[in-house]
Amino acid sequence: MEVTEVLLPGVGIRYEFATARGARVGVVARRTGDTELLVYGSGDPDTPRHLLHLNRDEAEAVAEMLGAPRVAERFADLTREVPGLVSGQIEIGEHSPYRDRTLGDTRARTRTGASIVAIVRGEAVIASPTPARSLHAGDVLVVVGTEEGIAGVERIVGAV
Amino acid sequence: MDISVPLFLELGAVLVALSLASSVARRWGLSPVPLYLLAGLALGEGGVAPVPAAGAFIGTGAAIGMVLLLLLLGLEFSPAEFSQSLRLHLPSSVLDAVLNALPGAAAGLLLGLDWRGALALAGITWISSSGIVARLINDLGRLGNRETPSVLSLLVLEDIAMAVYLPLLGAAVVGSTLGRTTFTLATALLAVAVALFASRRLREPINRILDTGDSEQFLLRILGLTLLVAGAAEAAHASAAVGAFLVGLALSGQLAQRTRVAMEPLRDLFSLVFFLAIGLTIDPRNLVPILPAAAALAAVTALTKTAVGFYAAGRDGVARRGRLRAGTVLIPRGEFSVVIAGLAAGAAPGLVPFAAAYVIILAVAGPVVTYAAGRMPTPVWAGGTRNGAEA
Q1: Which family is this protein grouped under (chain B) (predicted)?
Q2: Torsion angles phi and psi, residue B351, rounded to 5
Q3: How many angstroms separate the first and last alpha carbons of chain B?
Q4: Quick one: CA dihedral B365, B370, B371, B373, positive or negative?
Q5: At how many degrees (to 10) do helices B284-315 and B320-329 cross?
Q6: Which residues in chain B come in under a pLDDT of 50?
Q7: Chain A contact for B130 (CB, 8 A cutoff)
Q8: SS (H, E, C) B229-298
């Protein structure tokens, strides 16, 4: 599936993709955390129909409904199929230097090669977190990579 | 503590009246900016209901409003969005500057202003109101439209062009001799460079100084810093507005987001006071003679903006109707045109009423035109066919 990303300066990002059944779906993620769900119909190809306006909490809830089972599945598959690839869980401690900062600030993937595929926050799972996602004390990062990579991430975000 | 009864009553009455008026405007999808200007006109010299007691507060509040407007404009700058807009829309942006600044400059010279006044009027006609345009895109449900990224990119590039234009104007207005003007300008541009450098490289120290969990502390620090820099800029003969704009540029990422949330209510209140104050300084009796010229310039620059948006959306492969929507949505000029007129008031006093008339016309007409453009079938001159289908 191909997702196109279009930057909306000052507003956020628009994602667009086509489903297997031929519908073109758009998602506008605003900087404020609100989300718009759109469907591109026929007629004027440049104007979509607005389906839903979700606030941050609603959007996260929907994302989890749609995404959480997927992530768990993908995970199990990954670590089973690729030798040398393991997954680990790292908690953001009270004294972590990245507490209340964004995932992007850690540059964990660049520095260690390991990917942070999800953040577990209490009961909720944030699947495929974006670099802009902020980390809070008590979050558990789900990391996939080599043994050394995971140890590296632990060194970066762990309480020093 | 001396409570001034007339001050409270006058100011309260003005705010309540404005809230009623602006809620009506919102219902019609219009920006409240022209309303506030008209209210100032009605209240001021030669108006219907003078407010003498509120004068001092309005004067101070207006200065703060101008500073906050520009602080929040600077905050909108993000390196990623800027570089992408530049990559995709540099030609559109150049066309925008040529087609919209030149008529302003020409009109300034025709109206008998000196080169400084012409420079100011060029800026007034050049910069679309990002506030009004963003709101229109939202209210008319065009966020997902394919032409919207090109419109937003143009706005980003205009806002950044201000980083060069404002210091230039500030230097021109206060500069007495050529040497002095050059020096002031060089200093101001150096300050812009420092601010941009700070936003990219000095995130950590800036965050450490300003970032606090306590929202009251945060507000005090940001506002204090902004006013200090604005005051220093004014003392250095740049201008307070430019200083505030630089603070906005230097703040980035999460910090910018937090500042936006903290400052928006303040900005809304004080910018209202700023527009009121502009209206107050204008005598309505002097407004009538300049209306034809302002209306003519508004008509010309509405067409030139439409052409720019039409071209920009075309670069993104949008169909004709979308290109027309993109062009018309850019028509409104607003807060920053008024700010520019205010900055240049020292050099060209006649510019303030002219800019006010011009902004009132376009801030009202722009939304109406773009609403119509979104509704109607593509006209024949834009390549539509008689039955309204896309050609």
Answers
A1: Belongs to the monovalent cation:proton antiporter 2 (CPA2) transporter (TC 2.A.37) family.
A2: -75, -30
A3: 70
A4: positive
A5: 150
A6: 385-391
A7: yes
A8: HHHHHHHCCCCHHHHHHHHHHHCCHHHHHHHHHHHHHHHHHHHHHHHHHHHHHCCHHHHHHHHHHHHHHH
Whether A118 contacts A71, CB under 8 Å: yes
CA dihedral of B224, B230, B234, B235, whole degrees rounded to 10: 40
Domains of chain A, by residue range, sit at 3-79, 86-157
How far is residue B260's CA from residue B78's CA, in Å, rounded to a whole number? 13
Rounded to whole angstroms, the Cα distance separating B332 from B351 reads 18
For A78, other C-beta atoms within 10 Å of its C-beta total 15
B45: nearest Cα among B285, B250, B254, B251: B285
Residue B257 forms contact with A (CB below 8 Å)? yes
How does the average pLDDT of chain A come out, rounded?
Answer: 82
Query: Which residue in this structure is represented by tokens 């812009």?
Result: B192
Summarize pLDDT for B273-296 with one digit per residue, the tens: 888 888 888 888 888 889 999 999
Distance from CA of B284 to the nearest CA of A (A): 37
Give strand pairing partners of A89: A142
Interface of A with B in 54-113 (CB under 8 A): 101-102
Q: Which domains does chain B have, with CATH numbers?
A: 27-375 (1.20.1530.20)
Q: Which fold has domain A86-157?
A: Alpha-Beta Plaits (3.30.70)
Nearest CA among A131, A124, A130, A134 for reference residue A60:
A124
Structure-derived torsion over alpha carbons of residues B30, B31, B33, B35, reported in degrees to the nearest 10: 30
Euclidean distance between CA atoms B178 and B195, whole angstroms: 26
Q: For chain B, give percent helix, strand, coil, nearest 5.
A: 80, 0, 20
Using an 8 Å CB-CB cutoff, list chain A residues near B81: 7, 9-10
Tokens of B99: 């087609």
* Residue B28 and residue B234 in contact, taking contact as beta carbons nearer than 8 Å: no
Task: Give the separation between CA B167 and CA B171, rounded to whole angstroms.
Answer: 6
In 3D, which of B28, B25, B46, B45 has the Cα closest to residue B36? B25
Burial (CB count <10 Å: 0-12, 13-18, 19+), residue A108: buried
Question: How far is CA A150 from each of CA A1, A38, A79, A141, B86, rounded to the nearest angstrom?
Answer: 29, 38, 13, 10, 38
Which residue of B78, B143, B318, B390 is the best one to mutate when testing the A interface, meaning the one whose CB has the most A CBs within 10 A? B143
A130-144 pLDDT, tens per residue?
888 888 888 888 888
